Amino acid sequence: MESKLLGRTRNPEEKLGIYKKAISAQAVSREGLAQDGGVATALLVFALESGMIDCAIVTDKDDEWRTVSRVVTTADEIRAAAGTKYTINNSVNSLAEALNMGFEKIGFVGTPCQIQGLRKVQLLEEPYQIGQEKIALLVGLFCMENFDYDLLMNGLVKGRFGLDPKNVARFEIKKGMFRVIDKQGKVDEVKLEETDQYNFKGCGPCFDFASELADISVGSVGSGDGWSTVLTRTDKGEKLYSDALAAGVLQEKAVSEKGLALAGKLAGNKAARFEAKSVEMNVKNISR
Ligand SMILES: Cc1cc2nc3c(=O)[nH]c(=O)nc-3n(C[C@H](O)[C@H](O)[C@H](O)COP(=O)(O)OP(=O)(O)OC[C@H]3O[C@@H](n4cnc5c(N)ncnc54)[C@H](O)[C@@H]3O)c2cc1C
């Protein structure tokens, strides 16, 4: 897939996958809801308004932080879905919904696993005609792991912090801590390694931290508060980013070497975790 999409396979030292440009960026007008620099939202809004896409598949939430997939067609709807929900979502299924609704240039934002799934469908050489050519843009997020809704809410949010999910304003991962901020501004936090018990089990066999098959990847690590780390990968992703920059939708500054190295280290850790899991599973299979 990497060769088909990007013309070559990566070198072992390219821990974040193949990219053209790495930069810290920020949406010029950010809604309060954005998780970091608001770049994911700004790129989708710009893609919609410039005609690159005719709809976007986003992950919104209900009032108890359950993820809700939406096929949306307005900037306001894209903005309403800003912010990270740290629970798994099946928004890939919304591709079928978007196709059934007749959209022809579909934009999608999501986690590395979701991007992999959609890119795989798009690059299939099988003669299936399911509308894969209508996937017009894949905006990928960085992701170390995701959580199971019931485990996270019952175990941590309600169980340990005594919070009603309805009263949570924001979840974030910062400096090794998983933080829950309520609507009164109170912060409850726990070391990230103590959250393993709430992980979504399917995340175990995942090796992709930086959405390596996206047109453009956006993450938090590597950039300061209120900024996003952006990796442009395909010509399409590069053009979208530079057009948004030229239009004054985004502003940028250099990403520090230290920041990029940290992102690369996390990506390497995720790949190593995958290797370890694979060995563990093989050993189990052999001993069976
Ligand atoms: C589960 C998860 C884990 C992450 N882990 C890391 C990490 O370890 N390190 C790191 O640097 N960054 C991580 N990120 C990315 C980070 O939280 C931000 O999403 C990213 O920096 C973009 O910020 P932004 O302000 O540009 O996005 P915004 O403008 O706020 O837009 C965020 C977009 O993310 C989408 N989204 C929100 N939740 C989900 C979800 N559960 N599934 C799919 N799409 C979703 C929304 O549709 C929205 O369009 C993670 C994101 C997710 C969803």
From TrEMBL:
Pfam families: FrhB_FdhB_C (PF04432), FrhB_FdhB_N (PF04422). InterPro entries: Co_F420_Hydgase/DH_bsu_N, FRHB/FDHB/HCAR-like, FrhB_FdhB_C. GO terms for molecular function: coenzyme F420 hydrogenase activity; oxidoreductase activity, acting on CH or CH2 groups, with an iron-sulfur protein as acceptor. Its EC number is 1.12.98.1. Coiled coil: none annotated. Residues 104-257 form the Coenzyme F420 hydrogenase/dehydrogenase beta subunit C-terminal domain. It comes from the Archaea. Keywords: Oxidoreductase. Residues 27-92 form the Coenzyme F420 hydrogenase/dehydrogenase beta subunit N-terminal domain. This is Coenzyme F420 hydrogenase subunit beta. It comes from Methanothrix soehngenii (strain ATCC 5969 / DSM 3671 / JCM 10134 / NBRC 103675 / OCM 69 / GP-6).
